[in-house]
């Protein structure tokens, strides 16, 4: 194995004192021919002896209660003392751990067989649960009794479906859930309600960032996705009887997720852009219409994202995209485009274009290669190229009050809004005196 020099040196130092193994995801990825993103060692040494053996390196006691320290080699390497775990009363951490010198006991506490292997410094692989077999077969299988593994920490349910997509991305080949493991996911999905919103959010984001949609499909099939976001359940099987669509709302949604660039903002916006359709459905002559689903969807998306404790900036950007995803790209003129840019910003406008393209491509198979019309693309670039000062209003509230002898109040806001609309039509009008003269006949004398 082609291991970083610092890791290999640390591994050798520890193994001189007691058996030490390469474990976890780094071993799994290495056996798949992939470059690991991080590295973990398991050792029979207690934490204080790990620290002693790593003298001269920066050691951080990241989980000392559970026998874990992080050694910077300078690459950070997590080193954990071999252990067996007690009960998981808090559904996340073992109540107590018992250090051991048996690597098999340590592997028995792990989540999935593909993560439950250990490579000795001598090159011998310890694989008591058939992890290498499952790597070859591309199977996600829980270690031991899947129900027991999932009840110890229900987040493992999310990890199982995430691995379907993550490992397909890395290997280019489809993976599947072992039968008993899949059944346990469906049976115990409600247990994930006991997991903190932050932990579910992080797993959901990791899943959304994958190219493969296999994990999302499994989360839908098991209804796990609807535990995290109940609002999406109404989309499942909700027909769109409209010439522009050939699938139900949820199938369309998952297509759009797969079409947009893998950024948290775009993937979340794609996932939630049609969340309000069932609430806004209107049947006219046998055709479904969803008037106002963009605005209501923005409110629903904000509630969902705040419940999942997404950062405020991410919430605002996603809400802006959902709110504006029905923008009339072909009908709007420069004024509409400038108003849109003012609302969502330069980056937001580019993201909105990307969401629109994905939305169209995901509507039906016949338009899977659809591209933005040249005229629309040109208009977008034209508005994006305008420097902010061109359309930033040349007057403010104080200017309005001084020009017309007004006191602070709604009338000032009304006049500013009218001025902004007028300037969006033609940025050449954006001059102080020109705006004042335009507003003069609009001032209400009774204010």
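^ Assign residues to that structure.
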């Amino acid at each position: 194995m082609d291991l970083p020099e610092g890791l290999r040196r640390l591994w050798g130092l520890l193994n001189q004192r007691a058996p030490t193994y390469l474990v976890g995801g780094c071993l799994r990825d290495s056996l798949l021919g992939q470059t690991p993103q991080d590295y973990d060692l398991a050792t029979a040494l207690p934490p204080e002896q790990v620290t002693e053996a790593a003298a001269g390196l920066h050691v951080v006691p990241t989980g000392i209660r559970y026998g874990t320290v992080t050694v910077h080699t300078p690459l950070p390497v997590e080193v954990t003392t071999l252990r067996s775990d007690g009960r998981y009363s808090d559904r996340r951490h073992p109540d107590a751990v018992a250090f051991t010198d048996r690597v098999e006991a340590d592997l028995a506490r792990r989540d999935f067989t593909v993560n439950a292997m250990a490579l000795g410094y001598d090159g011998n692989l310890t694989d008591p649960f058939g992890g290498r077999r499952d790597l070859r077969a591309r199977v996600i299988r829980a270690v031991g009794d899947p129900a027991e593994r999932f009840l110890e920490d229900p987040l493992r349910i999310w990890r199982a479906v995430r691995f379907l997509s993550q490992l397909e991305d890395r290997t280019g080949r489809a993976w599947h859930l072992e039968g008993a493991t899949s059944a346990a996911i469906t049976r115990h999905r409600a247990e994930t309600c006991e997991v903190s919103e932050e932990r579910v959010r992080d797993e959901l984001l990791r899943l959304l960032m994958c190219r493969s949609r296999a994990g999302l499909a499994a989360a839908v099939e098991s209804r796990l996705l609807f535990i995290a976001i109940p609002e999406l359940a109404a989309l499942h099987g909700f027909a769109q009887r409209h010439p522009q669509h050939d699938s139900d709302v949820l199938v369309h949604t998952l297509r759009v997720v797969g079409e947009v660039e893998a950024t948290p903002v775009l993937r979340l916006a794609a996932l939630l852009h049609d969340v309000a359709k069932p609430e806004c459905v209107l049947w006219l002559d046998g055709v479904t219409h969803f008037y106002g689903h963009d605005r209501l969807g923005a409110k629903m998306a904000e509630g969902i994202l705040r419940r999942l404790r997404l950062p405020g900036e991410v919430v605002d950007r996603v809400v802006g995209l959902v709110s504006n995803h029905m923008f009339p790209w072909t009908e709007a003129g420069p004024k509409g485009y400038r108003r849109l840019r003012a609302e969502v910003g330069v980056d937001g406008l580019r993201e909105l274009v990307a969401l629109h393209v994905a939305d169209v491509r995901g509507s039906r198979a016949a338009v899977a290669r659809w591209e933005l019309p040249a005229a629309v693309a040109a208009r977008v670039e034209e508005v994006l190229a305008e420097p902010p000062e061109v359309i930033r209003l040349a007057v403010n509230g104080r200017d309005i009050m001084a020009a017309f002898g007004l006191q602070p109040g709604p009338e000032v806001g009304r006049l500013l809004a009218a001025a902004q609309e007028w300037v969006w039509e033609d940025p050449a009008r954006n001059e102080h005196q020109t705006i004042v003269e335009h507003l003069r006949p609009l001032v209400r004398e009774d204010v």
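The longest helix spans residues 334-361.
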